[in-house]
């Protein structure tokens, strides 16, 4: 297991953690300013959101190269199914391709996929998962040609209705098995999987198909399941044990901190959030 | 699969569905008035909460016998672990026994167990599940002597932090295997398990150890994970398929409707809620 106490170059910031503090929103930190603040602290990577870089992909990528930070990935493909997905099938396919193109333009390695909830007019997850697999299989070929890897992210079952009918690492790996594309893997997010006693077995099964590892914490008394995530150490997830299993499976990539927290962290100075994040990464992950 | 279109004697009301409209709260329906309203509609059973019958167990049981309604079960054993459980170990044991005694006094068959969340000072669910197994093993002997069956209810993983470190049917059955007591089984609640693709396999494994089956629905856009449950048919759970699998496993007991809904159903006239519940039970379950 890697030791992060003295070297945090494997730490990546997902800009969601700062409340998407990009130009024109929140405290107004641009991707460039955010990258500079990360580099100043020894943080090795950044994960950006599409709306933060739209139309400026090349410039953002150039800044990242200039200051020496890795653009780890892009969030995210469109919802493919469910009540929040585009209604027209062609719109889903087109936007999925646009997200892949944008990932390539950024020089990022990974596009994260959050699949969407239960398709309207259907019950249960089976039909929706079947539709997801079709979209992902098609996109995987397109992404391979663009040099982009796709990471299926199972979300916590609380999002099963509207955001992700894909709720477990087991289901995500089953879909990977079914599609069988070399550039398709999974993203493991502590928030989504911490409760799952089947996780160790599934991580061992995943092996090198773990394309991303996300850090945060599950607060014992979560007040808002979308925007009340905890900083590492403040909740009940056994982060160190999960990271050990992820690394035992063969993962040696970046550890991405992604904390949606309208209740707490988004209210703070972004510089303070970064400082706390670094400290917690060194000490409790 | 049983046909409920013309016979709803297998339908049971969990009084939570009426917002615990018992004497002194809400619309003020006593357990007796609630039972009468159920009998008038052909509903065959009722599930009560401890605070609704405390000190009046024998009288409530006598009324049930007199009007011909089955007291299916009692909610519930105390939280055994986690931030909401009694701090002292003896208090947990004592209250667990009191709940078993109360179940027997009511003439009810089943006491439901909601195990509680992650034990303070620990991380992840493993330690807490170990403690739960100890409490349940001890209680199972006591319950057997009282003629009471215990139903472990896995809750949706959203409750993992504070209310239930036991989050899947698989985990509940693993604990049953471990304790190996004839009067220990599981309660399957659509709200808690609808998202789980492993459910069909686990239900087949459960067989006659399914002691209870709970109906409600998961709303696609759930606004409050504690008090925004849906009426059957209003959400995305594939209720009919789950019921088919439960019955295929050998379950032929009551179907208990338990809907916590401060957002909708608790605001309505209890008589209307019962009428809608009956209609939905006939048509969408």
Automatic annotation (TrEMBL), chains A, B:
Gene Ontology MF term list: isomerase activity
UniProt keyword Isomerase, yes or no: yes
Superkingdom of the source species: Bacteria
Domain Xylose isomerase-like TIM barrel: 51-269
Alphabetical list of InterPro entries matching this protein: IolE/XylAMocC-like, Xyl_isomerase-like_sf, Xyl_isomerase-like_TIM-brl
Entry keyword set: Isomerase
Database matches in Pfam families: AP_endonuc_2
UniProt KW Phosphoprotein keyword: no
Name the UniProt record assigns to this protein: Sugar phosphate isomerase/epimerase
